Amino acid sequence: MEGRPIARLIIISNRVATPDARGAAGAQGGLAGALNSALKDHGGIWFGWSGQETEDATDTMQLRRADGVTTATIDLSSRDVEEYYNGYANSTLWPLFHYRLDLTRYEVETAKGYERVNRHFAESVVPLIEPDDLVWVHDYHLLPLGEQLRRSGVANRIGFFLHIPWPPTRLFVSLPDHELLVRSLLEYDLIGFQSDEWRESFLHYCREELGAEVDEASGAIRFGGKTVTARTYPIGIDWDHFQEQGRTEEARIAEQRLVSSTRHRTAMIGVDRLDYSKGLPERIDGIARFFDQNPERVRDLVYIQIAPPSREDVKSYQDIRALLEQKAGQINGARSEVDLVPIRYVNRGYSHAELFGFFRAAKIGLVTPLRDGMNLVAKEYVAAQDPEDPGVLILSHFAGAARQLGAEDRGAVLVNSYSPDDISRAIQLALEMPLAERKARYAAMIGTIRDDNVQGWTRAFCDDLAATRPPARGADSETD
Ligand code: ADQ
Predict the structure, then answer these.
(1) Is pTM, for the whole model, over 0.90?
(2) Is the C-alpha dihedral spanning 11, 17, 19, 22 positive or negative?
(3) Ligand 1 atom closest to residue 401's alpha carbon, by position in its atom list
(4) How far apart are CA 229 and CA 188, in angstroms?
């Protein structure tokens, strides 16, 4: 790195992948591994919520060191979890940022709780930060953390990465205090987005609503005497680790289980957290439309949906689960024979080795979110395919991954995930696709998935953060 000494890294995210949480299915996917390896390279600390709830707020911090990585966690009170996590983060920001105004709740109390917990995060982490550390904050739970850190006197380089979409200005302005939230974001030195589309929405807001001076090409935003840069860093998978998982006995057994249980039928798979942004009921409607149009194909297509519940304390998540169960039940009731069911719906998570095996056995991967920052499942599905006989990825236009994997419709088969007819058409196309076309589409995607991996993503962000202007340390150091 151009002779620059490698700085220590402080990673701050809502949850921390502590050694004992690492095995938890889907805990933080390849991201946890990548951040851990970045921490091993740089040295430093990963700070966040332990996931534990206490009756009252406490100031106790648990520090642990394992595998060369130090984690620091705090517990949150039940009230904090309700207002900050279930409330503002998951009932206001998550739906709004996924374009779901109909599910977005605006409550003064939860907004205050969000602010309070961000302040508490800042106060807790500040003593751990040394003058030359790079500070990297993750995701929508912690949008205002940079400003809170600045208020506590942190002059370090601080970067922020948003894992989810940034909504269009016309939706975003429905958020009370939208301007305060964006102003707080401008306290970071570098802001990362998954795709150009989300970055453009953010720049549009800064220009049109704040009157900031914006340079589209470089992403420089000048506002209030300060410059912050907004760039795109599409996240990737941990390629090596996933391939390693794919070579295990566990993966082989999982593949065999699916192959032998589906026999002569084509297996089509979907793997998602149970979340309304993933478009699950709409997907089932698309599959139902396919069977309506091709009733005889119930005998040669089986759909496997793996969807472990998430955020179960939030009502909209309870609703989506009930709706999905109802829809899957309906089509199974209408289409099953004594010896077969068209949809297998599994409410649990699996290890990455098992997922690899399932993906490889499935000749169609259905990834149809209504809106998604990136979507790593799409990349994992392709990464698990046999290059000599690859399956077909059906991917929503509205996932960040569509820009990388679906360019000119040469890789993934792109669909409008709101349209049952479009999903049905894509399934038909995938079932009939000749081997040469499947191989060509696979070849168009696999290089990006292998090379633009999560290690490269981490490196690109940290290098850019390290190269931002030196911290001001009280002086007016604006150079450009
Ligand atoms: P998520 O919304 O959780 O992440 P996604 O990227 O699809 O979405 O998945 C993350 C990881 O969870 C993947 O590694 C996947 O294998 C795992 N996972 C999902 N379902 C699982 C299951 N049933 N069993 C086991 N593991 C499962 C958010 C954003 C995304 C963004 C990621 C990373 O919403 O848009 O891609 O962060 O930035």
Answers:
(1) yes
(2) negative
(3) 36
(4) 9
Token pair listed for 95: 């739906």
Report d(CA 332, CA 327) in Å as an integer: 9
Q: Can you tell me the mean pLDDT for 292-298?
A: 94
Pick the catalytic residue from 75, 272, 372, 452.
372
Nearest to 207 by CA among 223, 228, 218: 223
Structure tokens at 333: 């009731």
The answer to whether residue 361 scores a pLDDT higher than 90 is: yes
Measured from the CB, is residue 411 less than 6 Å from ligand 1?
Answer: no
Instruction: Report domain extents, the chain.
Output: 9-236+455-467, 239-451
Is ligand 1 within 6 A of the CB of residue 349? yes
Residue 446 and residue 383: Cα distance in Å, rounded?
A: 7
Domains 9-236+455-467 and 239-451 share a fold: yes
* Nearest alpha-carbon partner for 189 in 475, 469, 479: 469
- Of 163, 178, 204, 241, the catalytic one is 163
pLDDT digits (tens, 9 = 90+) for 51-89: 999 988 778 999 999 888 899 999 999 999 999 999 999
Position in ligand 1 atom list of the atom nearest CA 235: 38
Residue 471: per-residue pLDDT: 59
The question of whether 163 is a catalytic residue gets the answer yes
Fold adopted by 9-236+455-467: Rossmann fold (3.40.50)
The CATH architecture assigned to 239-451 reads 3-Layer(aba) Sandwich (3.40)
Reduce the DSSP state of residue 45 to 3 states and report it: strand
pLDDT recorded at residue 456 = 94
Contact call for residues 279 and 417 (beta carbons, < 8 A): yes
More confident residue, 409 or 195: 195
**Ligand 1 mean position, distance from CA 305 (Å):** 14
Beta bridge partners of 231: 192
Is there a catalytic annotation at residue 319?
A: no
Residue 27, pLDDT > 50, answer no
Residue 299 CB contacts under 8 Å (≥ 6 apart), including other chains:
265, 337, 340
Q: How many residues does the chain have?
A: 480
Q: Is the pLDDT of residue 169 over 70?
A: yes
